[in-house]
Amino acid sequence: MLQAQVFLWAYILLFFPASIVAQGLGVNWGVIASHPLDPKIVVNILKDNGIKKVKLFHAEHDILTALSGTDIEVMVGIPNHSLESLSEKYSVAQAWVKANVTAYMGKKGVNFKYVAVGNEPFLAAYNGTYNNLTLPAMKNILKALNEAGVGKDIKVSTPLNGDVYITPTYKPSDGIFRHDLADIMNGICEFLHKNNAAFIVNIYPFLNLYQNPGFPEPYAFFDNDDSNSMDDNGVKYRSVLDANIDTLVAALKVSNFSDIPIIVGEVGWPTDGNIYATTKNAKKFYNGLLKRMTKNEGTPLRPKQYPDVYMFSLLDEDLKSIDPGMFERHWGIFSFDGQPKFPLDLSGKGQNKRLVGGKNVTYMEKQWCVYNKAASNQKDLAVKVAWACNNTDCTTLVPGASCSGMGIDMNASVAFNMYYQMANQTKAACDFEGLAKIVKRDPSNGTCRFPIMIKTIQTTSNSSASAPKSSRSSTFSSSTSHSPLQTHSPSPSSSPFHSPLLIFQIFVGIFTIWFV
């Protein structure tokens, strides 16, 4: 009897995942961080939470090695700045496939499912830079995959933004592709249809809310009543995500490609850096999304099958550009150290379950850098905080963020500590001419958390084009009425330095009282 019980439990542990997730659920894994988490730890996070699909923005040797033998389905990306060489020279595509795909395949290799060529290459703000490069690059990559004998198993597509389609009447059912992209989109769709590949689209309901003061907040989420819905010839849309998906469905139908499957390549909700970017709202959004996926009822124009969805994102990235907004570094459902931010039931059943966090994460010393009120040169505080914030991550200080409104002492300490931690806790990084000091007691207070940095390893890339400027291009809603439409700004540099706008906002929030 005992042997039978042992066998039963062994069978369960071997053949059932640690956690059940909604069908078709995946996650984006970006690495624009000062201290990236060990890929082996991240892969264990995926496995422990039952996540079976992951999307990478470019090929990283250490990440692909960690994914080898796991059977996790991988979509690997190619950054936009590689499109020109890939489109012009087939040999470049051959070399890329050899170095980043076939080199990791085999009995215990990576389970590649897609190569994502480019990332939102048709953004209006790119002024057509990649319009005539993307499809030729896709064709060359597919040709190289076919030549390597893996083209039937690995699909080729390109993640596009919602600005490639519009709806002139505000209704999703009247969706069409943007007029200036009509011929290009026809070629892309013909390629996808011929090769049984999906149309990948990135959609961000949060940005509809962020960019439009009059946007109805409930419409950014799910399961709303008719007062917060869009009527389309009697069909009620209660979420901007569903309306956006169906605008694409309509555009595909008009172009005679109504059978192309759709994948939502990026969708998520940030947790800091803006009044709407909170863990409460993120949990609400994801719970609604996962419930929709679990029901699998589809959308009004494509019923019975909800698209596969890749959450954005797995981890926070503290070197992402903040040009789109101060929330850009806080999209993760896990913090930078792989710890869950809020309870989330990935099965979509709405249980108050806690995600499994990273294990065996190695942290630096348990010490922090804070403002020294006893220093004699207090008049220099504003200048020193400005310098710290211009060289570290102060996005938690902006109005509405987790550390805002807590007074001069607290905000100066946040700036000094973030600089100190990102500088690997070197003693010289906590001086600021006597205005800062090292303490052993955690200064965290309420929602304002003072992190301790992790020890990290440097990941290695196989591709000379492996360092994208941004792992997610910003997408902004153009109007409340045209909720499925989005306009955009170009992918900015991933420099850790902040824009003058952030410094201005910080000083308005921190130092106005000081000088009054």
From TrEMBL:
Membrane-spanning ranges: none
Gene3D superfamilies: 1.20.58.1040, Glycosidases (3.20.20.80)
Listed GO biological process terms: carbohydrate metabolic process
Reactions performed catalytically: Hydrolysis of (1->3)-beta-D-glucosidic linkages in (1->3)-beta-D-glucans
Domain X8: 367-450
Keywords for the protein's UniProt record, in alphabetical order: Disulfide bond, Glycosidase, Hydrolase, Signal
SMART domains: X8
Keyword Acyltransferase: no
InterPro entries listed in its UniProt record: GH, Glyco_hydro_17, Glyco_hydro_17_plant, X8
Range of residues in the leader sequence: 1-22
SUPFAM superfamilies: (Trans)glycosidases
Name of the protein described by the UniProt record: glucan endo-1,3-beta-D-glucosidase
Organism: Gossypium raimondii (Peruvian cotton)
